[in-house]
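An example makes the point: we let one protein speak, the chain in one-letter code, the fold tokenised, and here it is:
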Amino acid sequence: MALATRVIPCLDVAAGRVVKGVRFQGLEDAGDPVELAARYAAAGADEITFLDVTATVEARGTLLDTVRRTAEQVFVPLTVGGGVRSVADVDALLRSGADKIGVNSAAIARPELIAEIADRFGAQVCVLSLDVQHDPLTPSGWVVTTHGGRTDTGIDALEWTERAIALGAGELLLNSIDADGTKAGYDLRLIEAVRAVSSVPVIASGGAGGVEHFAPAVEAGADAVLAASVFHRGVLTIGEVKAALADAGVTVRQEAGR
């Protein structure tokens, strides 16, 4: 029996509010994270992803109180990322109600963090957040960025993917910086390339603009599809996305909640 493809709304949070822009620029207010998370969970979201998009840039930790209040209202798995630098940060987030933790910038700076998280909490807790941009200077044609897409690391995306999985990353949150917020569809070539080197689930992110964009991402190799602005702005509902996936022959979970 095929595993159900997950549909995941993403809450990009800055200063305690959900924001959305294009390629991480021109951020606009999209609402209260607790209210939006509760609404999406009730509408059938399979998971919620909560990314504190300015925590690393501002050199601070994730807003634990917002995570705690969100977790109290949401009874589907909650992934939290942004500003995670240590096992202690992971422990605090899990105690605040998170189920999985996303790491990016800190793992680039010190890859051993991935192994430390996996060893202590299990690989299923550690989600490697990959903000990837096209770059012809790298062997694969894609480079990893950090700090919300602001910093080009010069690290080849596929090489880093393989290394992170070997260290213990249990899932990949693959975000195309080029496609982010454009509503032009997911970067299918990027998904295919990462799928080819990944032995763990891949979450596709960046570019969703219509119901027709989700099934191709799954066909390209995504185990889950993540979107933000189309949900925040009421362009699409989770139900409409799941219906389109089902019509395309993709297995989805229809009931709300766990």
